[in-house]
Task: structure prediction
Amino acid sequence: DVKVTQSSRYLVKRTGEKVFLECVQDMDHENMFWYRQDPGLGLRLIYFSYDVKMKEKGDIPEGYSVSREKKERFSLILESASTNQTSMYLCASTGGGQETQYFGPGTRLLVL
Amino acid sequence: SQQGEEDPQALSIQEGENATMNCSYKTSINNLQWYRQNSGRGLVHLILIRSNEREKHSGRLRVTLDTSKKSSSLLITASRAADTASYFCATDASQAGTALIFGKGTTLSVSS
Result:
């Protein structure tokens, strides 16, 4: 079974802090994704990556950056956290010609 | 660029009843997928239907796709309390490659 893990289930940070959200998958997937999920808005794509050191902007990249130094790991970085970045963050991966995405359990981030 | 829109937003039924959720989308697609999310968790893939398919079954799930109307429906037969979750449709738009575009979801509540 594909396993996608996220470094934290719950995170509380202060405004202005730099925040790192880590995602690791164990199936050698080429493609990895970061979404944020907010009530009434569904899932929105922040960034995705097709390969190591490759990244593409999604629909809402402002205020975020990403890093993919190793194939199995995709990090989402909030350079200076703001209260409007309080949200549920979901990581997903896919690869090997598959079209379905495998999701991690999510990180619920609260920015105070 | 929200592609899929689920309808209804919320649905409450009794155990044993059928639940039908609908999804409409805007542009041409390669496939349409349905995902399920239990409260506070990541998404789990349920079923994928390709643009050249009209109907697909998986256990108690039945998915239909009408590309002329740009719509899909998910039917859960003989629902159980354990089916209580949010359900999302996601489209794989040709231009987006492997990035999926998710709708806002239907929240299903099944009471015993």
Q: What stands out?
A: The longest strand of chain A covers residues 31-38.
